[in-house]
Specification:
By secondary structure, this protein is mainly α. The protein contains 13 helices and no strands. The chain has one domain.
């Protein structure tokens, strides 16, 4: 426990470096991009339109009586934050090999900075979502107070996965090549384009072991439908996310001493 406290204190001491690296990540992402930060909105909007066309209109996928564009966008918001964090955080150590090899600082700052940059994109896309909700006449409710709780759980879960994969990618470069396929399969195992209600009851508890299932479903419940989170799915998300964060961080710090030699 004392070692963990010391590591958190060390991270706090380097918080300015965290923000600096996160800002650099954002600048690199949109450097020489004509639309700049508008891509943070364009990606979920284009995906929402494609999902609405193929899954909402052609395949008639149910959306729990929610207009399908809102249904799709509300699932894409937390999902794209998760996917962007993993996509940028996993290769963050190898992409910054010179920094890792020459400068002394907590190496976990690099994958965490990628998460901060993804969070900025999330905030921009969320602002556009607020406009979409207004267009469809969806009024805010007191259930929005649950959103920070859901985001905190997602940050905990995502950080655990990102730290583990970033460290693993140093030793096994195949990880960054497998990741896009993993994320595609993971999205289909998460109720982004379909409601959780279509999963048979006997299988639902197994789906809920994937924390993104409960997080996406409950985000949609509190923001769009204006109802409280579902206790079982939220509890399972917490019970899975906390050990993953501790395990991912433990593995990262255990492997950290060899990063400079391997990279």
């Amino acid at each position: 426990m004392r070692a963990m406290t010391q590591r958190i204190a060390e991270l706090a001491m380097h918080r300015e470096l965290l923000w600096t690296l996160a800002l650099r990540e954002i600048q690199i992402r949109y450097r020489q991009a004509v639309l700049g930060a508008a891509w943070a909105v364009l990606q979920p909007v284009v995906l929402m339109a494609a999902f609405t066309l193929f899954f909402g209109w052609f395949l008639r996928v149910p959306s729990d009586d929610v207009p399908y564009p809102i249904f799709a966008y509300s699932g894409l918001l937390p999902w794209l934050f998760f996917a962007a964090s993993l996509s940028a955080g996993t290769p963050s150590l190898t992409n910054n090999a010179a920094l890792v090899g020459k400068v002394a600082f907590p190496r976990e700052i690099l994958p965490l900075a990628a998460m901060v940059a993804a969070a900025v994109d999330f905030a921009v896309a969320a602002a556009a979502f607020a406009g979409l909700l207004a267009i469809y006449g969806v009024s805010p409710t007191m259930q929005l107070l649950y959103v920070p709780v859901l985001l905190l759980i997602q940050v905990i879960f995502t950080a655990g996965i990102v730290l583990f994969l970033a460290a693993l990618n140093v030793a096994y470069r195949d990880v960054r090549h497998v990741l896009p396929l993993l994320l595609q399969l993971w999205m289909f195992a998460t109720p982004v384009i379909y409601p959780l209600s279509v999963i048979p009851e006997r299988l639902r508890v197994w789906f809920l072991l994937n924390p993104m299932v409960g997080l996406v479903d409950n985000f949609r419940r509190v923001v769009v439908r204006g109802v409280p989170p579902e206790f079982l799915s939220l509890s399972l998300a917490v019970l899975v996310s906390l050990p993953l964060l501790l395990g991912g961080y433990w593995y990262f710090k255990r492997a950290e001493g060899e990063f400079a030699d391997i990279i």
